């Protein structure tokens, strides 16, 4: 139905965070319920779309993966432009990726101010023996930056749906 289709609100979600934290894997898990142990080369298109329902309201999410732009920070502001939400991911087994979060948040705030939902994601929580960043540390950072926080495993799928539901709820409350 074209009329109903046009009425579905669209939201741009950008996925940020250092290389190898699991950005592409989280998107693949959410879109296709699959996981691959290899580095996920980003598909050669700008974004993937999925409609989800919050209550009885459909919302169209456009998921913008970072295709190696992580390494070229000058490209990031352009990419963040027009985003409704920023999903900033770190790897709970890698402290450096957690420290990088501050800079990613700064990039988002510089571009979007407060007109954006930000969620920090601690990914790879299935690797319990190798974990170096605690949930408490991550929650503290989220509190300091006034963002949401979610722990995920793109590998097992743990909390991946919850992540997207949480973002969608925050977006629908925003509007
Ligand atoms: P990106 O560079 O941020 O897009 O990271 P990728 O999605 O390519 O993932 C980098 C590597 O981490 C790959 O080898 C993935 O299989 C692995 N990986 C991603 N998410 C998880 C996870 O939740 N648990 C585990 N154990 N490995 C993961
Ligand atoms: Mg990737």
TrEMBL record:
Annotated GO MF terms: GTP binding; GTPase activity
Entry keywords, A to Z: GTP-binding, Nucleotide-binding
Protein name as catalogued: Uncharacterized protein
Native species: Stentor coeruleus
């Amino acid at each position: 139905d074209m009329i109903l289709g046009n009425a579905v609100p669209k939201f741009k979600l950008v996925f940020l965070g250092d290389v190898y934290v699991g950005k592409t894997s989280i998107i693949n898990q959410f879109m296709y319920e699959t996981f691959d142990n290899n580095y996920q080369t980003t598909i050669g298109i700008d974004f993937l779309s999925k409609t989800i329902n919050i209550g009885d309201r459909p919302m169209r999410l456009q998921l913008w993966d970072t295709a190696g732009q992580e390494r070229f920070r000058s490209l990031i502001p352009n990419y963040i432009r027009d985003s409704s939400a920023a999903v900033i991911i770190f790897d709970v087994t890698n402290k450096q990726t957690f420290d990088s979060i501050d800079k990613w948040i700064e990039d988002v705030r510089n571009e979007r101010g407060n007109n954006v939902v930000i969620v920090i994601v601690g990914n790879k929580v299935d690797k319990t023996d190798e974990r170096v960043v605690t949930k408490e540390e991550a929650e503290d950072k989220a509190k300091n930056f006034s963002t949401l926080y979610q722990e995920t495993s793109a590998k097992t799928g743990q909390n991946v749906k919850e992540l997207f539901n949480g973002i969608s709820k925050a977006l629908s409350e925003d509007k």
